[in-house]
Amino acid sequence: MSEIKSELKATLTQATKDAMRARDKERVATLRMVNSEVKRIEVDERREVSDDDVMTVLNKMLKQRQDALSQFKKAGRDDLAEVEAYEITIIEGFLPAQMEPEELAAFVASLIEQSGAAGMQDMGKVMALLKSQGEGRVDMGKASALVKAQLA
Fold first, then answer.
1. pLDDT grade for 1, boundaries at 50, 70 and 90
2. How far is it, in rounded angstroms, from Cα 138 to Cα 141?
3. pLDDT tier, 87 (very low <50, low <70, confident <90, very high otherwise)
4. For residues 119 and 47, what is the distance between their CA atoms, to the nearest angstrom?
5. How far, in Å, are 62, 64, 86, 144 from residue 93 at the CA level?
6. % of the chain at pLDDT higher than 90
7. Distances in Å between the alpha carbon of 75 and those of 72, 78, 79?
8. Domain locations in the chain?
9. Can you give the pTM of this predicted structure?
10. Which CATH class is domain 101-151?
11. Which sign, positive or negative, has the C-alpha torsion 46, 50, 54, 60?
12. Quick one: average pLDDT of 62-68?
């Protein structure tokens, strides 16, 4: 295997060890879940993961937790919703801070201008720019709604 060491993976591993020493069972369980997903990618694809790979895993797991949280709240399962909310806070701790709503609106407007988008048919162009330049700081759901609103 090549030596492309991921800083984020090392940070996750260290955080897991720290949580174990602190006997924080819930935090350990969440971090182990993230670490196992990262390890699965390494084993399945037979390669060392990069920080981008780890970010992708974290974003995917965050989205899954957010979807589950909304489902549990709708079903009135506050006990399960509480677990998901806790896992969301742990996972968000390893992701870059999300853009504020005003900052996101300005960012989307600049991307629309940059891409030369004229209407809804150009939404794909803007979303592609958003993915490449947002770098984990953008909530794609909120951004998509803003793009639609500004292009309409």
1. very low
2. 9
3. very high
4. 42
5. 11, 16, 11, 24
6. 54
7. 5, 8, 11
8. 7-92, 101-151
9. 0.75
10. mainly alpha
11. negative
12. 94
Task: Please report, as a single letter, which amino acid is at residue 108.
Answer: V
Among candidate residues 132, 111, 106, 133, the one with its CA nearest the CA of residue 123: 111
Pick the CATH number of 7-92 from 1.10.10.10, 1.10.1510.10, 3.30.413.10, 1.25.40.10: 1.10.1510.10
pLDDT in tens, 89-147: 999 999 988 888 888 888 888 888 888 878 788 888 888 888 888 767 787 788 888 88
Tell me if 118 sits within 8 A of 97, measured CB to CB.
no
17 by DSSP, 3-state: which? helix
Alpha helices by DSSP H, 22-139: 25-45, 51-74, 78-92, 101-115, 123-134
